[in-house]
Every structure is written in C-alpha cells, then in structure tokens.
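This protein record is not my work; I was only asked to verify it. Would you go through it and say whether the fold makes sense for this chain? Here is the record exactly as it was handed to me.
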Amino acid sequence: MRVGDARQESSTAREANVAPLSTRTLFEALLARLLEAVLGVYAERLITLAVFGSVARGTATAESDVDLLLIAAPLPRGRTRRLAEFAQVEDRLAPDLRQMAQAGIHTRLSPILKTPDEVRAGSPLFLDMVFDVRLLYDRDHFFARFLQDFAERLRKLGAKRIVQGDRWYWDLKPDYRPGEVFEL
C-alpha cells in the first residue's frame, strides 16, 4: 500500500466514524503478540525480551523495524541456528505482520539473540539501551540490573550521550588521553 492509499483509508474511516488505528497502536498490539509468540517458542528458557530503537521510544514510523533483544539460556550455537529457531516466532506473527502491511506499516523483526553470559561480556549495543529500552519480559530483573550496573560504569567514566537534533553519539571518556586503556 502506498502512502496515498493510507491517507485515503484514513479519510474513509473518518467518514464512517471509525477511528483509524494509529501506527503506535498497531505496534503496541504487535508487541503484545510478540511476547506471546516468544514465550510460546522459548518458554522457560526466556530470560529477557527487550525492545529498543524507535519502537521503544514511541517514534516508530510506517517503515520502522522492531529492534529486539532476546536473552535466553540455552541458545543454539551460532547465529544461523539461533535465527532458524527464532523463525518460529516470525511464523507465529506472520498474520499480524500481514495485517500491519495492509494498514500501510511495513515492518519486520530485527532480533539480537544472546545468552546471559554473552550479555555480561558487554556490547556497544547496550549503550543506547541505558536510555531507550522497553522490557517486555525480564525474569528476576536480569537485564534491568545489568543496565543499571552498565549505566553506573558509564557514569564513573564520565561518558556522555551527545544529542544533536534527532541524532546522537557517545563520548565514552571525555578526559581520554592517548594511550590510556579503559573498560566499560
């Protein structure tokens, strides 16, 4: 569906006194179904399901993907095997994704799949999650605690997220001197 088609549907819905579903509402419904699907596939292995990026910030557009972090134990070895297992989640959500596409929202799931040990090893991916994350599921507050500890390490370094309009970057150690080594 093209943008013009979406506008036409919206005006048609208004004429019929039926409110069109907003992009945000459709993403919220998808997140609820996402949690159900993930629990259905990973069951007791699931530790955390977190959404980050524009969907977590509430700024998703009709072309946004759903960035998600799934922490489970155990997970298959290797990205290919992990994604093959995650395909079961995508299969369960296929009707929801088709419905969103019919409403003019062309999204896809963009999963990052990690074990708790891989999370503890750290990743630059977690930098923005200190500010922008939605925890849909977090057994025993595993990831919330991790992010809290990570934020404290960033604070001790003096790290700053520098915002310029709708973009930002990180200055991890403003007082860095050449040759100095530091860890997050």
Notes: The longest strand covers residues 46-52. The mean pLDDT is 89. The longest helix spans residues 79-102. Residues 51 and 123 are 16 Å apart (CA to CA).
